[in-house]
Every structure is written in structure tokens, then in C-alpha cells.
Write a structure and sequence with these properties.
The chain is α/β, with parallel strands linked by helices. The chain has three domains: 1-50, no CATH class; 74-328, Type I PLP-dependent aspartate aminotransferase-like (Major domain) (Aspartate Aminotransferase, domain 2, 3-Layer(aba) Sandwich), CATH 3.40.640; 341-448, Aspartate Aminotransferase, domain 1. 35% of the residues lie in helices and 13% in strands. It has twelve helices and 13 strands. It has helices spanning 6-12, 39-50, 70-78, 91-107, 124-145, 162-170, 189-192, 218-232, 249-252, 320-357, 390-398, 429-448; strands at residues 117-121, 154-157, 174-177, 200-206, 238-241, 265-271, 283-287, 299-301, 308-310, 361-365, 375-380, 406-408, 417-422. It has a seven-stranded mixed β-sheet with strand order 1-7-6-5-4-2-3, sandwiched between helices. Helix 6 links the parallel strand 2 and strand 3. Helix 10 (320-357) crosses helix 12 (429-448). The longest helix is centred in the C-terminal third of the chain and has 38 residues, at 320-357.
Length: 468
């Protein structure tokens, strides 16, 4: 019979994570520690810190996906070390990217027999900047050929997300943002035209406004620009910021003309990790024809094993997001996307109906698929006899984990304060009913508790989409 000594057994035992020496200390926060630590202990400590983040599935402020299937996680893990930019070393990943561009060109009705061109990006913000750069360089080249001044470019937009403010500032372009009015919360053809002149590099329309969720009338804006060209000779290009709507309208409102069916639309950007249902870190930008992408912007890179044409702001990045996007295209097909987004719109309609029943709120946008994305936006009724404001309401919901942001509108409509819910894959009817129950509890709380002082926008933790 084998004999064992207790000391030998004890010496070979590993300490429990919370019985180890590493767990007894407060670890450095802003400098690297001198020595190594047990990986299992550090993993647990970092995981514990992450518990302090909000529950992503309850984040109804974000446009980004918060649900990933196990197949997506497996593909992301398989591709973590594949560099999307290295087409020579990872040729099949490059081919998958090319297929995705072709599929999106088809989805967005690129001209039959045309030469649609595009690329993946790390998100819709980079895609917007690439679309804006191409628009700027097309205008600049045209002006230079005509011997005209190129020192005062401007671009015309409606109420845009902060990435367009960044683009205008970084490239020294005047941003002529058509201001909202309390009774007009988006750009219309009539409000746009006075801002256009010969120095306008293009008009950016938004298919799914950040502030309300509504679509801007792209077809009507293009018609107004067609008439402007007939009247003045000014030919103004259009870029469609379809960060959300470009993955929604083709499936749930295909009759809306906003894409390459409109000849004036020269480029479209979108976010794959929003309603494209891919994991965080992928966007797309397409041009209706390769001629719309100035050669000056294209780099030929040969130090990664071959000649590659590159038009990106970012360089090395993992290929998993693009591969996962391709998986979703194949896995879901047109029917799958239609079903998932259709369910989101049904949930949005339910929420709009239930919120309206409280009798305290005016619905600004009800999530109608023909008018915008699956989002609900509301404001307090002017005659609502309540002690709270929407910032108070959002803060109370946040105490239970629900992130339902309250914010004011941009210039000329600052007096309009709204709340907004984004309905995404993974937020279904059951969770929506739980949220409505939370609304009821919150209203009961404000009916039975005094408020010392109402919260303000400065007190709110919500993200400011204006970039101010």
C-alpha cells in the first residue's frame, strides 16, 4: 500500500483563488506591477470589476448589437489573430470581405452591370469619413479642373451624429447643419436648399436619425437637388448615412427609394454591428461606381506580401467581425433579416402603445417601419401634471439597470427634451413587458415621493450625441 505524507500533498496543492496571496492586495490601477501574478486570480479580479458595468441587454440607448450567438463567438475566437488588412496572408478572409461588398451592393440596388466598389471599416463612423473624403476630393478635383477656388468647402446635413462634426473639423470643412425646429426635427428639401452654394461638396442625408429614429426623406431631397441643377447648373452629390436604416429599409420597407436607385446617391455607409447583426467592430461603405472613388485616396501597399489597394483610416484589425457578418448573411438570408427586424418593429409598436396609455407622454416617433428604425421617442406632455422631468425618469429607471436616455435636441430645438428606446435583436416582447412594469413602478414612486430638485442635462449620465 502506498504511503503519502500530508506535507507533500499540501505543498502540491494550489491555493483557492480567494485564499491566495494575490487576492489579499489592492492591485495597481495606473501602473504595471513589478512582478507576475497567478492568471486565475487576475482573471477573477478583472471579471469582478466588469460586474460594475451595466447589463448590456438592458442598454436601450445603444444602437449596437448586444446579443451574439454561440456560432458568432466561435467564429470570432477562430479569427482573433487574422489580420483583415493582410490580404496576402489571409486571402480567404479577403475574399469573404469582397463577397460581403457584392451582397451589399445587390441589397442597395447598385446599377445593373455597374462597377460598385466598397470596403469594410471598423464601424459606421470610419465609413462616414471615407464617404466624406471621397465626396470632398471629387468636388476639389472638379473645381481645380475648372480653375476655381477650393479653399472654402462646405457640406450640408441635417441633425447628424458626432462623427460628421469630427469629419468637418478634421478636414477643415464648414459644416452647414440645417438646424432643427420644435415642429421640424429633421432636414427637409425646403430647409436644405438655402444652405447650398458652389462650394458645397455634397449633402449628407441620414436614414435613421440618432435623435429620434426617423428617416430623412432621401428621395425628396434628391428631387430637390435635381431641380436645383436644372435651375442653376449646380450638381450636388448625396451621401446616405445609413448607419442603422441601410440594414432595415431593404427588408422592412423595400418600397422606400433611398439607395442607388437614386442616381444622385453616390455613396452609402452603414454599421454592420448595428442592425447588420454582426459583433462590435465592423462597418461598410460603398460607392455606386468605382469612378466615384478618387484615385488620390487609394494607396497601393506591397510590404505585406503583395500589392493591395487600400482606402481606410485604420490598418491592422481582426477579421472576425467581417467573417461574422458573412456568416449572418448566409445564415439568415433575406427572410431571416426580415423576421428579426420585423419582430423588433412589433416590439417597438407595443412599447409605443403602452407608453401612450399612461397619458403623460407625447410620442415623437412610434417606430413605424416606413418612417424610421425600430425606436420609440417621446416627450412629456406640456400639460402633464407631474413633479418629475424626463431626466428624473431616466435616472430612476437606471437605478434598476434600465438605460433609457433623456436628452435635449440640438440648436434651435433645445427646449425639446425626449427619451428614446432602441429595440434590437434580443429585446423581445417579454423584456418589453418587464420594462413597462418598471415604468409603472417608477411612476408610482414619483407619485408617492417628494423630489427635492429636478435633475438637469448636466446631471444626466446619458451620452451627448451633439458632440458639444
Amino acid at each position: 500500500m502506498a504511503l503519502y505524507q500530508a506535507k507533500e500533498i499540501k505543498d502540491n496543492m494550489e491555493d483557492s483563488i480567494f485564499g491566495s496571496i494575490d487576492s489579499e492586495f489592492i492591485l495597481p490601477k495606473y501602473r504595471m506591477p513589478e512582478g507576475e501574478s497567478e492568471p486565475s486570480v487576475i482573471l477573477e479580479v478583472v471579471k469582478d470589476e466588469l460586474f460594475l458595468d451595466g447589463n448590456a441587454r438592458q442598454n436601450l440607448a445603444t444602437f449596437c448589437q448586444t446579443y451574439e450567438s454561440k456560432e458568432i463567438r466561435e467564429l470570432m475566437n477562430l479569427s482573433i489573430s487574422k489580420n483583415m488588412i493582410d490580404k496576402d496572408e489571409y486571402p480567404q478572409s479577403a475574399e469573404i470581405e469582397r463577397r460581403c461588398v457584392a451582397m451589399l451592393g445587390n441589397l442597395w440596388n447598385s446599377p445593373e452591370g455597374g462597377n460598385c466598389s466598397g470596403t469594410s471599416t471598423v464601424g459606421s463612423s470610419e465609413a462616414c469619413m471615407l464617404g466624406g473624403m471621397a465626396m470632398y476630393y471629387r468636388w476639389k478635383e472638379k473645381r481645380e479642373k475648372e480653375g476655381k477656388d477650393t479653399s472654402k468647402p462646405n457640406m450640408v446635413t441635417g441633425p447628424v451624429q458626432v462623427c460628421w462634426e469630427k469629419f468637418a473639423r478634421y478636414w477643415d470643412i464648414e459644416l452647414r447643419q440645417v438646424p432643427m425646429e420644435p415642429d421640424r426635427l429633421y432636414m427637409t428639401p425646403e430647409s436644405m436648399l438655402p444652405y447650398i452654394d458652389e462650394n458645397t461638396i455634397g449633402v449628407v442625408t441620414t436614414l435613421g436619425l440618432t435623435f429620434t429614429g426617423k428617416y430623412e426623406p432621401v428621395e425628396e431631397i434628391c428631387k430637390a437637388l435635381d431641380q436645383l441643377e436644372k435651375d442653376t447648373g449646380l450638381s450636388i452629390d448625396v451621401h446616405v448615412d445609413g448607419a442603422s436604416g441601410a440594414f432595415l429599409a431593404p427588408f422592412c420597407a423595400p418600397e422606400i427609394k433611398w439607395d442607388f436607385r437614386l442616381p444622385r446617391v453616390k455613396s452609402i455607409s452603414t454599421s454592420g454591428h448595428k442592425f447588420g447583426l454582426a459583433p462590435l467592430g465592423v462597418g461598410w461603405v460603398l460607392w455606386r461606381d468605382h469612378s466615384q472613388l478618387p484615385e488620390k485616396l487609394i494607396f497601393h501597399v506591397n510590404y505585406l506580401g503583395g500589392d493591395m489597394t487600400v482606402f481606410q483610416l485604420n490598418f491592422s484589425r481582426p477579421a472576425g467581425q467581417v467573417i461574422s457578418q458573412y456568416y449572418q448573411f448566409l445564415r439568415l438570408g433575406m427572410d431571416g433579416y426580415r423576421k428579426i427586424h420585423g419582430n423588433c418593429y412589433k416590439t417597438a409598436a407595443y412599447l409605443a402603445e403602452e407608453i401612450n396609455k399612461f397619458g403623460l407622454f407625447d410620442i415623437v416617433f412610434d417606430g413605424n417601419p416606413h418612417d424610421g428604425i425600430p425606436a420609440i421617442t417621446w416627450q412629456l406632455k406640456k400639460d402633464a401634471n407631474v413633479k418629475f422631468n424626463l431626466y428624473d425618469f431616466a435616472d430612476k429607471l437606471r437605478s434598476r439597470g434600465w438605460l433609457v436616455p433623456a436628452y435635449s435636441m440640438p440648436a434651435n430645438a433645445e427646449s425639446v427634451v425626449v427619451q428614446r428606446i432602441l429595440v434590437r435583436q434580443g429585446f423581445g416582447m417579454d423584456m418589453a413587458s418587464l420594462l413597462i412594469d418598471e415604468f409603472k413602478r417608477t411612476l408610482d414612486f414619483f407619485n408617492t415621493h417628494e423630489i427635492g430638485a429636478n435633475m438637469t442635462a448636466q446631471d444626466s449620465a446619458g451620452f451627448n450625441h451633439c458632440g458639444k
